[in-house]
Amino acid sequence: MVLRRIIGCLGLATGFLWGAEDYWAFAPVSNSTPPTVGNSNWAREDLDRFVLAGIEKGGYLPTKTAEKRTLVRRAYLDLHGLPPTAAQITTFLQDEREDAWEKLIGELLESPRYGERWGRHWLDVARYADTNGMDEDIAHPSAWRYRDYVIAAFNEDKPFDQFIIEQLAGDLLPAKDLEEKRARTVGLGFLSVGPKMLACDDPDKMRRDIVDEQMDTMGRAFLGMTIGCARCHDHKIDPISIKDYYGLAGIFMSTKTLTKYSVVAEFHEHNLTEEHHKKRWQEVNRLEAVRKKKETSKEEKKRLGKEIATLTKDLPVPFMVMGVSEYPTQNIKVHLRGDYLTLGEEVSRGVPSAWTDGKKIIMPEKQSGRLELARWIASAENPLTSRVIVNRLWRWHFGRGIVPTPDNFGGLGERPTHPALLDHLAHKFVKSGWSVKAMHRLMMNSAIYRQSTQADPALSKDDPENKLFARWQRRRVESEVIRDSILMKSNRLDPTVGGSMLVVQPSKYADRGHLKAHSLVPRRTVYLPVYRSSGYDGQKAFDSADSAVSDGNRRSSTVAGQALYLMNSELMHESSKSLAEIVISQDSPNPTSWLINHLLGREATEKECLQGEKFVNDYGDEKEAWSAFARVLFSSNEFLYIE
Question: In terms of Cα–Cα distance, which of 259, 253, 262, 130 is closest to 198?
Answer without folding.
Answer: 262
